[in-house]
Every structure is written in structure tokens, then in C-alpha cells.
Amino acid sequence: MPDRISKKLRKLIADRAFHLCEYCKSPQTYSPSPFDVEHIIPKSRGGQSDSDNLAYSCNDYKSNKISATDPINHLEIPIFHPRKNIWSDHFAWDVSGLFIIGTTPNGRASVDLLKLNRLELVNLRSLLTMIGKHPPR
To answer: Where along the chain do its domains lie?
Structure first.
């Protein structure tokens, strides 16, 4: 039986992330789908269900992956790790504020693997920009 992440731990993870996806910075408040607490290092790869290995996420593209191919240098690169990496060191917003740009191999591989610029997220960002709720502070 898979171990369950308690409601208390889920709340801690969501609060720590300010209820934003730790990968794309989308706010859970405006999401049509519930966010999930996911293992950064998957359990299948030895990851634990403790707060240091859990992230608040709006997508399930990561699955059990911990690396992906950088589209520029074509090397297998570790993807963004919300507990060990700083978002702004690996990502930036384009001039419109609607698209996430991977500024490092780690960031580029993460943008591709996690589909951080999928149509639904870009549409949400566009609407949130109109009401002054994007980009997040």
C-alpha cells in the first residue's frame, strides 16, 4: 500500500509554496484542477515522503523522472529541484510575461519536460496579467 501524505503535510507544502506551483509559478487559486504534492526524487528512485522531498505542483508530466534532455546541447540534465535550486537562477519570464524561458540547461530541460508553456498555462497567465495577478511577486 502506498504511503499517504497527511493533510497536515500537504498544507505545509502548499503554504511553503505560497499556493503556487513550484515549477511554473501558477497560482492554485485560479487553477481549474487541483494541485498535487509530488515527490521531487520519486519513491521509485529512493525518494522519501518528507517535506524536503515534496513539491507543490500543477502538472503530472514529471512522473518518476529526475532528468531530461536540454534542447540546446542535447545532454541529459537534472531537472529543476525546488528544494535545492532557486527558480530565478534557472528561469525568467519573456517580455510578455506569458512564457517561461529556461536560462540554464537545467531550466531548459525542465521547461520542455514539464511543459511549462503549455497552452492552458499561457492562457491562464494572460488572464491573470489582465487583472494584475501575474507574474507572481
So the answer is: 7-130
